[in-house]
Amino acid sequence: MEDLVAYKYRSFRDNKKDFLANRLWFSDLSQLNDPFEGILPIQNLEDVSDEAIAEANIKIAQYHNPNLESQPWAKEAYKNLLLSGIVSDIRKNKGTDEHKENTKKSITQLVCNRFGVYCLSRTPVNYLMWSHYADSHKGFCIGYDLIKLLNQLKKSTDFKVLAIKYCETIPMYNITDDPETFVQKYFGTKGKSWDYEEELRIVVNNLVNTHFDYSPDVIREVSIGWRTPKETENAILSHLKANGINCPVYKVMPSETRYEMEEERIL
User: Fold this and answer.
1) How far apart are CA 65 and CA 74, in angstroms?
2) What's 41's DSSP letter?
3) Least confident of 83-87, 144-148, 213-217, 243-247
4) 24 - beta bridge partners?
5) Which pLDDT tens digit goes with each residue over 191-226?
6) 62 falls in which pLDDT band (50, 70, 90)?
7) DSSP bridge partners of 222
8) What distance in Å separates the CA atoms of residue 206 and residue 129, rounded to the nearest whole number?
């Protein structure tokens, strides 16, 4: 992630205030445009051993009581208690369709209330991204210094940066998944149709449906769409100058020979 620039395509009409205020908006998953966000099938417990179910519940207990990890005797006693009969009750209750549905709803509610998401791209010249997210080439694209942005963000909250994995099938939530695996499945996996976005996603804890202010030096470059009105272009350039942001500015134009967009530096 060293010296990485990550890009956000924007409509100036819809995002003028945020750009001029040097701030981001962290949305909850339900606000995003992929209908499969937050959909995660749950594994059948028939495929899981009693030992694995016990270990999974121990992980939950450790999350709520970290001291359990430093007390091996207590951990072992709890495991034996689980295996003595509680696991069979868990298997009975958690194997029902009703419980699976309630679990999905509980996870979705927890995630939407607690975690915010900011979506970025690895490229500033994808013409579908310009069409879909930058007002049909009438907007702009901000290139953020990701390291500087994350260094500022970590003063306010915990976060995880995910490179989105694009798959044909929806991953399944397994009771034995560790937290890292769950986060990648839930927040960091999308259908193959979205792979043109080359998405990087910042997932933050307890910053949801709210703004985050960053310093102007986080902006590394700005690209302007080939259809962007001159008035909008002037407003962008004025903002950069007023904030002392001496970054490269590009105009992104259609190639004359290929179905590609090309950058031309204008400042």
Assistant:
1) 11
2) -
3) 83-87
4) 212
5) 999 999 999 999 998 899 999 999 999 999 999 999
6) low
7) 142, 249
8) 28
Cα separation of 154 and 219, whole Å? 17
Identify the helix (H) or strand (E) that includes residue 225: strand 219-225
Q: Lowest-confidence range among 162-166, 173-177, 229-233? A: 173-177
Q: CA 205, 206, 207, 209 torsion: positive or negative?
A: positive
CA distance 222 to 88: 58
Helix residue ranges, H only, the chain:
12-20, 50-64, 72-81, 87-94, 97-114, 127-133, 146-153, 179-187, 230-242
Evaluate the CA torsion angle 22, 25, 26, 32 in order and state its sign. Answer: negative
Quote the radius of gyration of the chain (alpha carbons, Å): 23
The ranges assigned to domains in the chain are: 5-33+115-265, 45-94
Look at the pTM and tell me if it is higher than 0.85.
no
- Exposure string (b/e) for 148-176, b if CB count within 10 Å is 16 or more? ebbeebeeeeebbbbebeeeeeebebbbe
